[in-house]
């Protein structure tokens, strides 16, 4: 995967950066996720501002999340108040949703995202899922009958156009398996810089990480703490193995999970609305796991939490075969 940035980076934050893409653009190792259940605008706006105060510079959003506008407002406020010195210090990711995953709708969707964000460009623009759904406002769950065959080549050409126009400094994908990446690499003029996927000690994605390393694609972890659903049954935050390692090292379970991800060479986006946790989640760079810790984590049973089926209404039938979207690669 990408290498760590040296001292030349423009972001003067304590969060290290990976050098990503053909021109080696710095991407912070930890960013703030902005999916929030329930979504309360003021809470997310405040979390973005607090994160920026604490030194976060990467904010992850998407057309689907309804968070672009508040992210834009918080960033504008941070720039105005001097918390952030200039736009160049920031790293903003957004994503095109399945309902806009059609060649002619990608650029308009990015333009709408930029308007919401009050920005002239995003640092990273991703195809959210390798799946196309009948055009409409971004939403989920989506009807199975609305799934359409995806024109990956046409959609990627539109992504490349976004980059050429200077509206996306880098382009990439999300939720792509090695098979989907291979398909994309065979047609891309500009290869994807990043693949954002579910990644944590309970879904370790060894095959995908090796593949991406080999192809110089930066892996970015989402749901690095096991996500937001079923908090009492969260496989990462309730893991006995992580808890025991945390106890012996004087670290929290969250920190053990995030440190493990960092040691895989992956960057990550983690969501919290709480100042203490936002701070805790970036205190992972001045210590490391032992070989024994890594080997215990390597034995944790594997379970994928987020699947394409979660995005679809349970009823209905799709005429398009989507069996290759959710390949459980170990
Ligand atoms: N590309 C995709 O398809 C995709 C899919 C899912 C998510 N994402 C992105 O990834 C981001 C992160 O993933 P996620 O939101 O699913 O979940 P996550 O970051 O794995 O976990 C967030 C949950 O953990 C809690 N938390 C945060 N820090 C903690 C700590 N130190 N100790 C204990 N609990 C802690 C948060 O609660 P509090 O807020 O109460 O602290 C929140 O409920 C999303 O927000 C989104 O930006 C992308």
Automatic annotation (TrEMBL):
<dbReference type="InterPro" id="IPR023210">
    <property type="entry name" value="NADP_OxRdtase_dom"/>
</dbReference>
<protein>
    <recommendedName>
        <fullName>NADP-dependent oxidoreductase domain-containing protein</fullName>
    </recommendedName>
</protein>
<dbReference type="InterPro" id="IPR018170">
    <property type="entry name" value="Aldo/ket_reductase_CS"/>
</dbReference>
<keyword id="KW-0560">Oxidoreductase</keyword>
<dbReference type="InterPro" id="IPR036812">
    <property type="entry name" value="NAD(P)_OxRdtase_dom_sf"/>
</dbReference>
<dbReference type="GO" id="GO:1990641">
    <property type="term" value="P:response to iron ion starvation"/>
</dbReference>
<feature type="domain" description="NADP-dependent oxidoreductase">
    <location>
        <begin position="32"/>
        <end position="297"/>
    </location>
</feature>
<dbReference type="InterPro" id="IPR020471">
    <property type="entry name" value="AKR"/>
</dbReference>
<dbReference type="GO" id="GO:0033707">
    <property type="term" value="F:3''-deamino-3''-oxonicotianamine reductase activity"/>
</dbReference>
<dbReference type="Pfam" id="PF00248">
    <property type="entry name" value="Aldo_ket_red"/>
</dbReference>
<dbReference type="GO" id="GO:0005829">
    <property type="term" value="C:cytosol"/>
</dbReference>
<feature type="site" description="Lowers pKa of active site Tyr">
    <location>
        <position position="95"/>
    </location>
</feature>
<comment type="similarity">
    <text>Belongs to the aldo/keto reductase family.</text>
</comment>
<feature type="binding site">
    <location>
        <position position="128"/>
    </location>
    <ligand>
        <name>substrate</name>
    </ligand>
</feature>
<feature type="active site" description="Proton donor">
    <location>
        <position position="65"/>
    </location>
</feature>
<dbReference type="GO" id="GO:0019290">
    <property type="term" value="P:siderophore biosynthetic process"/>
</dbReference>
<dbReference type="GO" id="GO:0004032">
    <property type="term" value="F:aldose reductase (NADPH) activity"/>
</dbReference>
<dbReference type="InterPro" id="IPR044497">
    <property type="entry name" value="AKR4A/B"/>
</dbReference>
């Amino acid at each position: 995967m990408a290498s760590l940035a040296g001292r030349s980076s423009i972001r003067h934050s304590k969060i290290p950066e990976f050098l990503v893409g053909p021109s080696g653009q710095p991407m912070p190792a930890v960013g703030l996720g902005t999916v929030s259940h329930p979504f309360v605008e003021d809470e997310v706006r405040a979390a973005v501002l607090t994160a920026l105060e604490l030194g976060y510079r990467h904010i992850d959003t998407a057309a689907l999340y309804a968070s672009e506008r508040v992210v834009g407002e918080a960033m504008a406020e941070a720039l105005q108040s001097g918390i952030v010195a200039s736009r160049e210090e920031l790293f903003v990711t957004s994503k095109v949703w399945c309902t806009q995953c059609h060649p002619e709708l990608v650029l308009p969707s990015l333009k709408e995202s930029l308007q919401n964000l009050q920005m002239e460009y995003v640092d990273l623009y991703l195809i959210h899922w390798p799946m196309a759904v009948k055009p409409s406002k971004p939403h989920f769950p989506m009807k199975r009958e609305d799934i359409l065959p995806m024109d990956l080549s046409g959609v990627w050409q539109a992504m490349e156009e976004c980059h050429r126009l200077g509206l996306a400094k880098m382009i990439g994908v999300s939720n792509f398996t090695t098979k989907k990446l291979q398909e994309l690499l065979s047609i891309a003029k500009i290869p994807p810089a990043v693949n954002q996927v579910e990644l944590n000690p309970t879904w370790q994605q060894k095959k995908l990480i090796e593949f991406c390393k080999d192809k110089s694609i930066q892996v970015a972890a989402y749901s690095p703490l096991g996500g937001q659903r079923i908090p009492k049954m969260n496989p990462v935050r309730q893991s006995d193995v992580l808890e025991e390692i945390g106890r012996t090292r004087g670290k929290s379970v969250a920190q053990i999970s995030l440190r493990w991800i960092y040691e895989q060479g992956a960057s990550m986006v983690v969501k919290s609305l709480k100042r203490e946790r936002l701070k805790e989640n970036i205190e992972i760079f001045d210590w490391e796991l032992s070989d024994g810790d890594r080997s215990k984590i390597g034995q944790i049973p594997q379970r994928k939490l987020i699947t394409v089926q979660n995005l679809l209404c349970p009823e209905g039938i799709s005429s398009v075969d989507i069996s290759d979207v959710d390949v459980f690669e170990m």
